[in-house]
Amino acid sequence: MSHASELIEKDILQYLDAQEHKSFLRFITCGSVDDGKSTLIGRLLYDSKMIFEDQLTSLEADSKKVGTTGGDLDLALLVDGLAAEREQGITIDVAYRFFSTDKRKFIVADTPGHEQYTRNMATGASTADLAVILIDARKGILTQTRRHSFIVSLLGIRHVVLAINKMDLVDYAQDVFEQIKHDYEVFAQALNFDDVVAVPISALKGDNILNGSDAMPWYQGTTLMSHLESVNVDRDDQVSSFRLPVQWVNRPNLDFRGFSGTIASGTVSIGDEIMALPSGHRSRVKQILVGDEDCQLGAAGEAVTIALEDEIDISRGDVLCAANDPARVSDQFMAHVLWMHHEALLPGRPYLLKSGNRTSTAVVSDLRHKVNVNTLEHQAGKTLELNEVGQCTLSLNQRIAFDPYTVNRDTGSFILIDRLTNNTVGAGMFDFELRRASNIVWQELDVDKQTRANQKHQKPCVLWFTGLSGSGKSTVANLVEKKLLTRGKHTYILDGDNVRHGLNKDLGFTDVDRVENIRRVGETAKLFVDAGLIVLVSFISPFISERRMARNLLGEGEFLEVFVNTPLEVCESRDPKGLYKKAREGKIKNFTGIDSAYEAPEDAEIIVSTADQDAETSADQIIEYLEANGYLESDS
Questions:
Q1: Least buried of 209, 228, 384, 620, by fewest C-beta within 10 Å?
Q2: How wide is the angle at C-alpha 97 spanned by C-alphas 96 and 99, nearest 5°?
Q3: DSSP secondary structure string for all residues of 280-294
Q4: Which residues lie closer than 8 Å to 341 by C-beta, 6 or more apart?
Q5: DSSP 8-state secondary structure symbol assigned to residue 569
Q6: 8-state DSSP, 117
């Protein structure tokens, strides 16, 4: 099978010892589609003799059946294992392969070149120490080449091999190689790579892969394999300060309480002083277990259980740190985000943020800029679309421990998750905490919400009226307030049109502005509830996510969703403001129900239909609900 097969047969212990002491390199192959990434990895496996005889036989058969090399060995098939990949001749998923030489062990990630699979490429790059960026010599530098290079830089990879492939298809021309090399070096000047080594290759023919090429006598540099075997990519996880994200509080019996997880960086020894974040509690390490074995020391990459000398409160998601160099703690950050979903990132919309083993609710409060991957210029923008990268501010619902990504890739990274679908929609890197997060504290007041509510003899809440334009939301809300006032109740209406004359007059009707519109109204309604009022909010509020965000701002039972369920055709036939007519004529853009979606409530507390009953009856229905559920009398 391999270069070491004879040693395995003669002295297996010597072979295992040699393998244990070899250095180790993780690298990624990336670039635009059809630049030859899979063929290159297949060539590395083939030339390093890491293919079993039965694999070689299968490869020969597959090459004749689905190969793209005219019946010759199609080395890309060693990596493209999915049926769809073989049928289309492209890479879709990330494929990891192990191989070794006399000098080093390797894990290589073959990542997709297609733009729609950029998130898979980012996944592969997140654990790599070096990137091999392939360029088709016939095509030169493409947009996807630049995008992958920027992502590689963003994810902290500092060593790059520029593999200019398919030199055999340009007659091994030196001027082609030199021009592409020059163009890339100019582009990469702003990417902060430590080194970029350009190598002219033919992955198909094997030129400059393992051995030098007779076809390119003008090239006197290193071969690809020689560089991979010798490049120094000292990982900093062993020398960085100790970090252990707690995955599990291990309590097998009453006599033992340990904290289990994988050490992200640094080392820890018995007797070391540690700090648990975000609480800041300190203790010393009493015991370290790797499996069932006691150890004196734990190092980065090891799964350990740590017992402490003191009983301090530590939960899943906390981070154990070296006490003399702890991580930072904050709930507001500046961060870079790579967006991975076809639905755009919308500032103001709540997402789930997972960092380490802790999940928090996060809102992108502001998009500072987007990055043009072709020029690396910063551009203004309100949203991030699929595969775009931007710098933004994040606000979380709780303080978390973190390090800047440039300091620690494990504790400095996070993913964003859609709250409705549970899909991963973004990957991010913490830049730094926002100082104002540590300067602002909640001011305790002597008069609280319950005192204000008791004074008014009512249970404060938000009646959130949602429905299409023309459904009757404002009419019904107005009638409900009048009926409440006749009962001596204290109320206030936040109407969509009225609020846009003042608080939200700077907002339009794009999805981004609609999200911010509801965020501001939700925060305002929360203040009115704190004042002890019954607040009537009458907004189209078309998105489930934003209505859920408003609900989550309030306490249990303080948010009552009132769905004014009136069909579009009925609303359009009323058209009290002539808006539907204008929208149909194209004079109004982003109009809900016409060219902007409305997401109906899934489980509203109250549903009224003004198509089947008049506004007075609908208002009475809402009053009856409030009476039946104790909102019109105080709890005192």
A1: 620
A2: 150
A3: TEEEEEEEEEETTEE
A4: 386, 418, 423, 425, 426
A5: H
A6: G
Distance of CA 108 to the CA centre of its chain: 23
Name the one residue in this structure whose structure tokens are 């090891």: 302
Tens of pLDDT, residue by residue over 181-233, are: 999 999 998 888 989 999 999 988 889 998 899 999 999 999 999 999 999 87
CA distance 115 to 147: 9
**Residue 176 to residue 243: CA distance in whole angstroms:** 47
Domain extents in the chain: 5-230, 243-322, 330-437, 449-628
Per DSSP bridges, beta strands 534-538 and 559-564 are: unpaired
- What is the fold of 449-628? Rossmann fold (3.40.50)
Residue given tokens 């090459």 in the structure block: 63
What number of other Cβ atoms are within 10 A of residue 404's Cβ?
Answer: 18
Full-model pTM: 0.69
Q: What is the dotted CATH code of the domain comprising 330-437?
A: 2.40.30.10
pLDDT of the residue at 90: 37
* Catalytic residue positions, numbered: 541
| pLDDT value of position 89 | 38
- Strand spans (E) along 32-179: 95-100, 104-110, 130-136, 159-165
In the chain, count of helices (H) and strands (E)?
18, 28
CATH superfamily of 5-230: P-loop containing nucleotide triphosphate hydrolases (3.40.50.300)
Task: For helices 449-456 and 511-530, give the axis angle rounded to 10 degrees.
Answer: 70
Extract the tokens encoding 104: 């080093």
Give the CATH architecture of domain 243-322: Beta Barrel (2.40)
Tens of pLDDT along 79-106? 544 333 334 333 334 667 787 888 888 8
- Average pLDDT value for residue range 614-636: 86
Task: Provide the β-strand partners of residue 329.
Answer: 401
Predicted confidence band at 159 (pLDDT cuts at 50, 70, 90)? very high
Half-sphere exposure of 558 (CA within 13 A, CB side): 22
What string of DSSP letters covers 48-69?
TT---HHHHHHHHHHHHHH-SS
CB count, 10 Å around CB of 257? 16
Terminal CA-CA length for the chain:
81
The answer to whether 243-322 and 330-437 have equal CATH topology is: yes
CA distance 116 to 258: 43
